């Protein structure tokens, strides 16, 4: 009689060979995976909400730069993951989602929780596959893992029909762990881009999230050689040392007003590993009217066709290494002086603004960020949401990431609650301190999985900015003078405090005034070092918003020219 494995034994065996150490999710009610786990050495983080499970897995993947895995049931269990997959795809998070599916023997019979899961998932993943025979199981796992980490990383999906999970899989399988491949640009494309770069005197380098999967200092070397101003997209932050004298902040929507001049005067923009989403290109139509753009990406679909210039298909680091070898001329001293002067103005304005805040009551987010910057460990992981006030951390120089620290933010989809859940995955993935800066709306949406952190003793620090509800919507309503409407998005009742469950593992703190801010944050850090889950509730003023987003029109602020007329 031929020895065999159960399908879950084969799946767990492959994942272990691929270096997977944690699984996230909520398994199907048949619980067949449970018997395969004990001998694997893997931890299954049982979540309360499938959406949060994918967020956690994405946070884990973005922290490790390795594939993470999420396991769920069928039908509505799978549909609950779609928001998470939307984020993972837009973030470029390498993630494998395994979901049960209706057995082939019951398809089309209106069986319990039957759904066309492939059709639901396919637009949100790099590859979706339903395993119809056990002989294709390991092949599917190997292909999925390969696709998840190669090219532009992203989520992949494997559906496991119920009847398949009862079939034996032969033993003696040879598992092939996924191999990370490199993709060097062609010399023709490099030469075409070089013809523009070598004559540029006022270059700007834009670093996107696609450059965070590798640790390499060639970006800084290239910037030094050509005297380029360094910017990042929101998702590309921490790919370069933000203490570098050439670093000028976040592109587009989040660019400090003092640094807009750099974009206006630039004569070439080199975009590395960015899809050039709307937030990153905000105001480009007026700032870069005649400026050529060089885009470097590993995926064809990631190129933006709204701008003239050169497209280079391949790895951004490989392209930079080629251009570094060609550089022979000196950079423009006047351009460096422009960068220095603009940065000096930005930091001066920040200092003046912080001094003004000291005279006003309450605690303000910029003051909070200043304490975190000076009192918390330098090499930490800061996980952020994208709400009205947690967005302050996007605005350099109010916060900056030194070499060795890590920034995790939502994609341009900005799914509410992503940061709160992703922080748990990040904390499991690293020994570095993890701090999550979230709004009360996002935290409350995530709260079904607060117990997950307690159950698995996952330490981290939550800084919850409580403005009494959904501040972005209320701020927009106030700006449009619609505050008399019967749709309040914030309330004083909600601002009385969020409900934090009381456990020995949990430490609840509150900051109501600037006088207690430093003491409470230092206490938070002390409790975190005692392996606690710390929640610091910060009572935020709804009016505490950055000037760039004070003039709101729909999803985006008005352009500077429009805002000045209002």
Automatic annotation (TrEMBL):
Record keywords, A-Z: Thiamine pyrophosphate
Source domain of life: Bacteria
Coiled coil spans: none
tRNA-binding listed as a keyword: no
GO molecular function terms noted in the UniProt entry: acetolactate synthase activity; flavin adenine dinucleotide binding; magnesium ion binding; thiamine pyrophosphate binding
Pfam families: TPP_enzyme_C (PF02775), TPP_enzyme_M (PF00205), TPP_enzyme_N (PF02776)
Position of the signal peptide: none
Positions of the Thiamine pyrophosphate enzyme central domain: 190-322
GO biological process: isoleucine biosynthetic process; L-valine biosynthetic process
Recorded GO CC terms: acetolactate synthase complex
Sequence ranges assigned to domain Thiamine pyrophosphate enzyme N-terminal TPP-binding in this UniProt record: 9-119
Domain Thiamine pyrophosphate enzyme TPP-binding: 411-486
Alphabetical list of InterPro entries matching this protein: DHS-like_NAD/FAD-binding_dom (IPR029035), THDP-binding (IPR029061), Thiamin_PyroP_enz_cen_dom (IPR012000), Thiamin_PyroP_enz_TPP-bd_dom (IPR012001), TPP_enz (IPR045229), TPP_enzyme_TPP-bd (IPR011766)
Family named by the database record: Belongs to the TPP enzyme family.
Record-given protein name: Thiamine pyrophosphate-binding protein
Lineage, top ranks: Bacteria, Bacillati, Bacillota, Bacilli, Bacillales
């Amino acid at each position: 009689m031929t020895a065999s494995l159960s399908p879950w034994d084969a799946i767990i065996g492959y994942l272990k060979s691929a270096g997977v150490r944690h699984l996230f999710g909520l398994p199907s009610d048949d619980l067949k995976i449970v018997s395969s786990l004990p001998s694997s050495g893997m931890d299954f983080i049982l979540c309360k909400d499938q959406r949060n499970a994918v967020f956690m897995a994405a946070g884990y993947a973005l922290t490790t730069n390795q594939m993470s895995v999420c396991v769920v049931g069928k039908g509505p269990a799978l549909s609950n993951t779609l928001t998470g997959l939307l984020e993972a795809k837009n973030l470029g998070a390498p993630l494998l989602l395994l979901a049960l599916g209706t057995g082939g023997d019951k398809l089309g019979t209106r069986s319990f929780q039957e759904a066309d899961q492939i059709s639901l998932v396919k637009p949100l993943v790099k590859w979706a596959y339903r395993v119809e025979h056990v002989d294709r199981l390991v092949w599917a796992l190997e292909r999925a893992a390969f696709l998840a980490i190669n090219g532009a990383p992203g989520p992949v999906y494997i559906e496991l029909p119920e009847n398949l999970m009862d079939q034996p899989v032969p033993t003696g399988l040879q598992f092939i762990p996924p191999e990370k491949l490199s993709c060097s640009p062609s010399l023709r494309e490099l030469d075409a881009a070089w013809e523009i770069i070598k004559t540029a005197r006022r270059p700007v380098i834009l670093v996107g999230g696609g450059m965070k999967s590798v640790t390499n200092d060639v970006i800084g070397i290239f910037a030094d050689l050509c005297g380029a101003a360094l910017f990042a997209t929101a998702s590309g932050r921490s790919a370069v040392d933000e203490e570098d004298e050439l670093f000028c902040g976040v592109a587009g929507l989040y660019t400090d007003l003092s640094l807009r001049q750099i974009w206006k005067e630039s004569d070439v923009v080199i975009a590395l590993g960015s899809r050039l989403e709307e937030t990153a290109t905000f105001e480009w139509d007026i700032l870069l009217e005649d400026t050529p753009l060089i885009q470097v990406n590993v995926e064809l679909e990631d190129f933006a066709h709204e701008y003239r210039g050169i497209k280079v298909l391949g790895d951004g680091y490989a392209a930079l290494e080629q251009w570094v070898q060609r550089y022979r001329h000196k950079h423009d001293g006047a351009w460096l002086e422009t960068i220095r002067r603009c940065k000096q103005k930005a930091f001066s304005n920040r200092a003046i603004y912080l001094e003004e805040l000291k005279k006003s009551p309450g605690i303000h987010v910029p003051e909070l960020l200043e304490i975190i910057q000076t009192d918390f460990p330098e090499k930490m992981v800061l996980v952020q949401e994208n709400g009205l006030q947690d967005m302050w951390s996007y605005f350099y120089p109010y916060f900056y990431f030194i070499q060795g620290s890590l920034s995790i933010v939502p994609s341009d989809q900005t799914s509410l609650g992503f940061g709160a859940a992703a922080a748990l995955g990040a904390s499991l993935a690293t020994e570095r301190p993890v701090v999550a800066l979230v709004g009360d709306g996002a935290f409350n949406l995530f709260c079904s999985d607060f117990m997950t952190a307690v159950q698995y003793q996952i330490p981290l620090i939550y800084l919850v900015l409580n403005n009494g509800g959904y501040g972005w919507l209320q701020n927009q309503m106030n700006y449009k003078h619609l505050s008399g409407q019967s749709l309040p998005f914030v309330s004083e009742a909600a601002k009385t405090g969020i409900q934090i469950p009381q456990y020995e593992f949990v430490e609840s703190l509150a900051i109501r005034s600037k006088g207690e801010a430093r003491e409470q944050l230092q206490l938070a850090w002390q409790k975190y070092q005692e392996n606690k889950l710390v929640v610091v509730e910060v009572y935020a003023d709804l009016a505490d918003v950055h000037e760039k987003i004070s003039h709101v029109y729909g999803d985006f602020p008005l352009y500077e020219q429009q805002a000045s007329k209002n």
